[in-house]
Amino acid sequence: MAGKREVGEGKFSPKKIFVYMSLIVGSLVSLFPFYYMFVMATRLNREINQVPPPFTPGKHLVENFQKVLNSIDFFGAMWNSFFVATTVTLGTLFLSSLAGYAFAKLDFKGKSILFGMILVTMMVPPQLGLIPQYYIITTLGWLNDFKAIIIPGLINAFGIFWMRQYIKDGVPYEIIEAAKIDGCSNFRIYWNIVVPMILPAFATLGIIVFMAVWNDFLWPLVVLRDPSMHTLQVALRSLNDARLLDYGMIMSGTFWATVPLLIVFLLFNRLFIQSLSEGAVK
Description:
MetI-like fold; 14 helices
């Protein structure tokens, strides 16, 4: 009959209930490892090794974290990681967006070939470049220097690809042409017109790059020998050097090393979701 709602279109239709239940279950499954890491960070070794293991927080969070502070320079390593990750992220956002603007809106000879070569580098495992990159860093005398981590990380093939695609679809050619008629240079067009229009893309790429640099372990371990310059992931490794592993201490250090990543994501998640949703609509 006219005016009747079809089955499955109501406020609490079976289809909607199934979707929301699936999302809830998926969220719980995704959050459980982080929750259990927190549980282990609040327990002692003898409690963690019980059968069955505990699934509720204990009372030893401060005690375990104090053991971490006694074993490594946790806050010094966290500052090193924050400095390196922030510097690489800001530099990557600037250079990737600048290159993305050039590939998306400027015409120059060999553009397609050059962009294709950049895409090819994304298919090469980063471990294959470890030895030649180490040789270059040694030749330049950058061992035990943050430049060895920061400068190679400023050029990001995925960042260029991401920015090129976003600018190509999100910045109309008409605005670019109007700015050129008004006498704007290419850099002024980029800085005053393109940058304000691609803030969601900045947020998405920034979160990805910051997390990747923050969690990087292999390259900082290779080039940073001085313990005072260790990043957080390298410093946490030394917690495993003892013959008797203190899982509560290790999980406490890992838990607090993850908190800054959660803060960064929560600060920029609105722009992150906006960027993904805009891409889906387009």
